[in-house]
């Protein structure tokens, strides 16, 4: 596995190199953003650790250029754009993480980090978990950036992602899901064509998907708005901006609950079949 370590501090770079020495990792270092972008094309890393605050070009700008496959630096940016990027920063906050995930980051590590932390995060990302493998989530938002922020960490946990730009598009996808293979819906509140509230009502009433977890992603936090979400059938909600850990924790809980309910329904069906066949 190849790691690109990007930081304007030689000390931090050496600390990270020391952290990953126990693993079977090949490392290369870059002292700033432009140096990193130049080395990615040649080195083709499996993962990048990226300082946020660097002179000349911030880590967020570097990440954005990687995600869009900037032709100024990459001949074929499509594969490079999917490289996991771990931000390393001493200025950790919800606002900072929101900006980082919006630029396409995979994870955050806060300086100073404890021994074993960097190695643990890297291994967890590269050894993609099968925790939620086989499950499918529908992400509904009119913002492509917002969909990326939601989808990326869930894919890391093995979730298959379907995307829709608005409620009407999402409803069509759900109508075509005859075998109920979609296990969860994450939807924005305000969207053109059909908003999240109308989508939720139609899922519950028109499609009859009463047990399908529906999580709202909303900037609203007043009591009346939240109560309205639950009245139309919401399972849960997250207030923007949210951090990646909060998103994955909520989604994991609801998907596990859905798995258990589906398994119980299957067992009950088998039990009924057994009783009907018993002489």
Poorly predicted tracts of residues: none
Q: What is the CATH class of the largest domain?
A: Alpha Beta
Supply the number of structural domains.
2
Strand content: 15-25%
Number of strands: 10
Q: Count of helices?
A: 11
Q: How far is it from the N-terminal to the C-terminal residue, by CA? A: 60 Å
Q: Could you walk me through the main structural features you see in this protein, from its secondary elements to its overall organization?
A:
This is Response regulatory domain-containing protein. Residues 2-126, 136-255 form the Response regulatory domain. It comes from SAR324 cluster bacterium. The modification 4-aspartylphosphate is found at residues 51, 188. This protein is α/β, with parallel strands linked by helices. The protein has two domains: 2-126, 3-Layer(aba) Sandwich (Rossmann fold), CATH 3.40.50; 136-266, 3-Layer(aba) Sandwich (Rossmann fold). It is built from eleven helices and ten strands. Helix 1 (10-20) links the parallel strand 1 (2-6) and strand 2. The chain is globular and about 70 Å long. The model has no long low-confidence stretch (mean pLDDT 89).
């Amino acid at each position: 596995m190849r790691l690109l370590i990007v930081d304007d501090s030689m000390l931090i770079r050496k600390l990270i190199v020391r952290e990953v020495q126990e693993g079977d990792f090949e490392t290369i270092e870059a002292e700033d953003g432009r140096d990193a972008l130049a080395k990615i094309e040649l080195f083709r890393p499996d993962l990048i650790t990226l300082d946020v605050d660097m002179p000349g070009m911030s880590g967020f700008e570097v990440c954005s250029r990687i995600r869009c496959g900037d032709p100024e630096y990459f001949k074929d940016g499509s594969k490079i754009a999917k490289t996991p990027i771990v931000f390393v920063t001493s200025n950790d906050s919800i606002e900072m993480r929101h900006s980082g995930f919006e630029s396409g980051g995979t994870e955050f590590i806060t300086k100073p980090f404890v021994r074993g932390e960097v190695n643990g995060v890297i291994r967890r990302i590269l050894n993609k978990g099968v925790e939620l493998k086989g499950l499918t989530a529908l992400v509904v938002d009119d913002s492509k950036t917002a969909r990326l922020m939601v989808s990326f960490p869930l894919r890391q946990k093995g979730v298959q992602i379907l995307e829709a730009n608005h409620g009407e598009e999402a409803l069509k996808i759900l109508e075509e899901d005859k075998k109920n293979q979609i296990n969860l819906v994450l939807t924005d509140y305000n969207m053109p064509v059909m908003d999240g509230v109308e989508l939720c009502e139609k899922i519950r009433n028109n499609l009859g998907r009463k047990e399908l977890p529906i999580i709202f992603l909303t900037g609203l936090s007043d009591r009346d708005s939240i109560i309205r979400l639950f009245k139309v059938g919401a399972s849960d909600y997250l207030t923007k901006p949210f951090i990646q850990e909060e998103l994955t924790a909520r989604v994991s809980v609801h998907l596990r609950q859905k798995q258990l309910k589906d398994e119980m329904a299957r067992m009950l069906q088998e039990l009924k079949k057994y009783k009907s066949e018993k002489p």
